[in-house]
Amino acid sequence: MLSKLSKKTKVALLGAGLYVIIPLDLIPDFIVGFGQVDDLGVATYLLKCLYADLKKSKKARIL
Prior knowledge:
By secondary structure, the protein is an all-alpha fold. It contains 2 helices and no strands.
């Protein structure tokens, strides 16, 4: 499965994983409301990349 992902998605997956593991945030989580915005942005970007790869894979399978 991992071999079918684009390089962009693999980098996004690695970056999101490191972002979760490393305790440094762009906006600290203790700032209620704003602290989760950067986390949500990272998750949204990762899901966007995964969705694009799945869409491309499905289209290639149909053709």
